[in-house]
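Hey, I was hoping to borrow your eyes for a little while. No rush at all, and the record is pasted right below.
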Amino acid sequence: MSHSFQSIALVGNAKDLRVAECMLSLAGHFYSKGVRALVDPGVGLAFRPDSVVPCPEQAFATRADLIIAIGGDGTLLYAARLVAGHSVPLLGINRGRLGFLTDVSPSSMLEDVDTVLAGRYSEDRRSLLAARLEKHDAEAVSALALNDVVVNKWKTGRTMDFETSINGRFVNSHGGDGMVIATATGSTAYALSCGGPIVEPDLDVWVMAPISPHTLSDRPIVVRAGSKIQLRMSDRFESRAQVTCDGSAIGDLEQGDNLYVEGADAQITLLHPPGYDYYRLLRSKLHWGRGAYGVLNDTRDTE
């Protein structure tokens, strides 16, 4: 489905000089084409007079036709939270480290952006997780996640003890540092460092990856998306954990508390310029196909 992009918002941490350079370049480029970009007033950059329209980031989802996230994957995750539940697509320009989600290179930024604005792009719909933290002494807290919901031990050197269930069926009692519940999109994030598998983004599955499990038999598992996952802190030991959604804390999980994770109704849409190849992205970011001294074994990849 083709979009008409009349209003474009820019998101990024302008304190990073590389991000600021890209934001200024894009704003000037759009202005030369008669388009004024939406930019949060707090960005603090010296844009060309009248080249941008001040707009709070929280209003981007209702005023923009496209959001361009400039930075690392964390910036795009932040932008995803801004548009969750809306139809505004996202385009990511990589000024971070890995950049699994922000796949446009700064060297081809203006060319790729023009290509997308001309209607030549592919749409990539990604599902979200919905987390609900139910505490015994406070109101429930809910949040969405594109990458993952993470339960991690908090302010203690001890391992934590907790139980997991899927669709009301008991799965396991765990001892360790926590659990990562990741979408296919998030399989290349924290879950990967916990030994989880890389999952194609369009597969409708989730990964449950224990963090530093006490027993070697406690391994990552892949479950059907749409399942209802319950994680309950054990009553047997004094444990405390923090729950985060895409790296943002939503609350503490303590004895008797429950965390529920299920599929969200909302999705987000990523846009890719022509030629996007997920496996090429993996080879680039994970340095696959490189022999001794980092030399490419496959000449099809030249980046």
Q: What stands out?
A: The two ends are 30 Å apart (CA to CA). The domain at 128-266 is CATH 2.60.200.30 (Tumour Suppressor Smad4). The chain has a mean pLDDT of 91.
